[in-house]
From TrEMBL:
High-level lineage: Eukaryota, Metazoa, Ecdysozoa, Arthropoda, Hexapoda
Protein name (Swiss-Prot/TrEMBL): Putative rab subfamily protein of small gtpase
Domain of life according to the entry: Eukaryota
Leader peptide range in chain numbering: none
Sequence intervals crossing the membrane: none
């Protein structure tokens, strides 16, 4: 059976500067890690597409990164526009970056109200004894967000641990949550036309 190709899904990275958003982007781009001392300072939005196979469907994730623009200017609403998912990133060894997530959450629900939201604690490789942000803190944040967080992850961009698993899980969730729309698109691609009212109840019926 041929794979059903799904339109690209825009995913945005959100969070404070220095939490590892660009490192997550590099892992997604070419599975590499560049130490801070070797990085060149660049500014500007960037994005990259990667395809994943989920069952009989091929979904293309288009990941967007701020490229450090938050250091010099506020991120405009266009960054959030048409996003299907948003990943809230914080550093597990820096509680300040975790406590700032509420503001980023507000921006997501304001400018990308239909996006699925994910929570990512980065730098899980750091051995700092007692972590500044615990699993309990993450659970409490999810509860405060009234179930708006679809899933939580821990990653290490330095070792690569958990990064690919996170993106594959998000791809699977996006396929599942949009299954009806994708199947309708597949039918239309094969020459079937769905007339208004065929999908469900007669529009004239209000009972």
């Amino acid at each position: 059976m041929a794979l059903v190709r799904i339109p690209e899904q825009k995913i945005i990275l959100c969070g404070e500067y220095g939490v590892g958003k660009s490192s997550l982007f590099r892992r997604f781009l070419n599975n590499t890690f560049v130490p801070t001392s070797n990085r060149q300072s660049t500014l500007g939005l960037d994005h990259f597409d990667r395809s994943y196979t989920v069952g009989d469907k091929e979904i293309k994730l288009q990941l967007w990164d701020t490229g450090g623009m938050e250091r010099v200017a506020s991120i405009t609403s266009s960054y959030y526009k048409f996003a299907e998912a948003a990943i809230l990133v914080f550093s597990l060894d820096n509680a300040t970056t975790f406590h700032s997530l509420s503001q980023h959450m507000l921006e997501i629900v304001t400018y990308a109200e239909n996006a699925k939201i994910y929570l990512c604690g980065n730098k899980s490789d750091l051995d700092v004894g007692t972590p500044q942000v615990t699993d309990g803190d993450m659970e409490a944040f999810c509860e405060q967000c009234h179930s708006l967080i679809s899933a939580t992850y821990k990653t290490s961009c330095k070792t690569g641990e958990g990064v690919d698993e996170m993106f594959r899980d998000i791809a699977t969730q996006l396929v599942t949550s949009n299954r009806s729309r994708f199947e309708l698109q597949a039918l239309e691609q094969h020459g079937f036309k769905i007339e208004a009212g065929e999908e469900g109840q007669d529009p004239s019926c209000i009972c």
